[in-house]
């Protein structure tokens, strides 16, 4: 089917409009301000490796760390001795401290090699304090690590699967210090929208007012909704937060088209529309093919040499094109893309058409290329 006839049929077809967006819980589109994770980091040593640790010549910090650790354990001053171990690796330990984590709570940690260790498999992390951005120690990590990847190496070849220099320890750290945060002391609670939008913020505030009554909620900006706590509700803030986060609202968003030119992926928002526009797709295909031939002299030729004779074939193919007018706002971008896909156009050709429509000012959406 020709593109002109097909697009004309799509443009004049009476197809239903996009369905309205579904209602979602507030907890799925917003978070409570102050209820967040905090990043922790620490420096430590992994011991017990089977010869896959840091080479101390290339990782002097590992040698210094081993000396300091042994001195703390009472081994004595080793600064004048040469340490030749290959079973130890210096690592960075990272973790996320959950909100309202209490002393003694376990958290997961990620262990990453800092030196030239080839694998952390089979190692054990030695006691490592984990500090926050303020320099305070909030957790301590230790334990055997689990590596998802593996590495095998011979004299002339090696094979690596995954990343054996990064490992995890499930429940490998224990919380030692809490972050003070009292919900009962709050006079207001704030909701932070993951995708700021004036319409969505207004709908969230309206849904909270209908549930709690009065003027307890208001939208401060596109990304923040403030809920005032009444005198009777201040004593049970968690229950009020539970009620608020389970309210249903219909989120809104700007019209957007996201294009990944590398993979040919196109993601289209439901509100994308185009004006009346004429579309033509086609072009000129030039094919150049090289078929060199080898010319050899006859057996009785004296002084003859073998030469390569070039053979080039050039072909030109021109695709017949037609203009098609797409009528007005009833034609959505989704219908246009479906039509282009139905006639077998490639992703690159579809992306070119979308970019051209945007350049013509007929695409009412943000065009984001990643």
From TrEMBL:
Keywords: Bacterial flagellum, Cell projection, Cilium, Flagellum, Periplasm, Signal
Cited Pfam families: FlgI (PF02119)
An individual GO BP term: bacterial-type flagellum-dependent cell motility
Signal peptide (residue range): 1-22
A GO term, aspect molecular function: structural molecule activity
One GO cellular component term noted in the UniProt record for this chain: bacterial-type flagellum basal body, distal rod, P ring
Keyword Signal: yes
Subcellular location, record wording: Bacterial flagellum basal body
Residue intervals passing through the bilayer: none
Family: Belongs to the FlgI family.
HAMAP family xref list: FlgI
Cross-referenced NCBIfam families: PRK05303.1
Protein function: Assembles around the rod to form the L-ring and probably protects the motor/basal body from shearing forces during rotation.
Subunit note: The basal body constitutes a major portion of the flagellar organelle and consists of four rings (L,P,S, and M) mounted on a central rod.
Descriptive protein name: Flagellar P-ring protein
């Amino acid at each position: 089917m020709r593109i002109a006839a097909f697009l004309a049929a799509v443009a004049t077809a009476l197809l239903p409009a996009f369905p309205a967006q579904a209602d979602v819980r507030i907890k799925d589109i917003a978070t409570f301000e102050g209820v967040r994770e905090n990043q922790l980091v620490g420096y430590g040593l992994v011991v017990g490796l089977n010869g896959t640790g840091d080479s101390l010549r290339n990782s002097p910090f590992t040698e210094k760390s081993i000396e300091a650790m042994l001195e703390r354990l009472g081994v004595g001053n080793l600064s004048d001795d040469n340490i030749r171990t290959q079973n130890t690796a210096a690592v960075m330990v990272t973790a996320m401290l959950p909100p309202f984590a209490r002393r003694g709570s376990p958290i997961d940690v990620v262990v990453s090699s800092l030196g030239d260790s080839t694998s952390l498999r089979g190692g054990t992390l030695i006691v490592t304090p984990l500090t926050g951005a303020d320099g305070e120690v909030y957790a301590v990590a230790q334990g055997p690590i689990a590596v998802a990847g593996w590495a095998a190496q011979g004299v002339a070849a090696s094979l690596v699967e995954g990343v054996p220099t990064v490992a995890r320890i499930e429940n490998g750290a224990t919380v030692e210090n809490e972050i003070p945060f009292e919900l009962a002391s709050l006079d207001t609670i704030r909701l932070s929208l993951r995708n700021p939008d004036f319409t969505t913020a207004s709908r969230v505030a309206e849904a909270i007012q209908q549930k709690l009554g009065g003027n307890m909620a208001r939208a401060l900006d596109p990304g923040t909704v403030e809920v005032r706590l009444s005198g009777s509700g201040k004593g049970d803030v968690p229950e009020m937060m539970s009620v608020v986060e389970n309210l249903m609202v219909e989120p809104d968003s700007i019209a957007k088209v996201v294009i990944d030119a590398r993979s040919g992926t196109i993601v289209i928002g439901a509100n994308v529309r185009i004006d009346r526009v004429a579309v033509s797709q086609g072009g000129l295909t030039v094919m150049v093919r090289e078929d060199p031939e080898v010319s050899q002299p006859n057996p009785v030729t004296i002084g003859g040499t073998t030469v390569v004779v070039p053979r080039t074939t050039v072909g030109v193919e021109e695709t017949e094109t037609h203009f098609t007018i797409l009528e007005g706002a009833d034609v959505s971008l989704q219908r246009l893309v479906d039509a282009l896909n139905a006639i077998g156009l490639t992703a690159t050709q579809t992306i070119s058409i979308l970019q051209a429509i945007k350049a013509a000012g007929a695409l009412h959406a943000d065009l984001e290329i990643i």
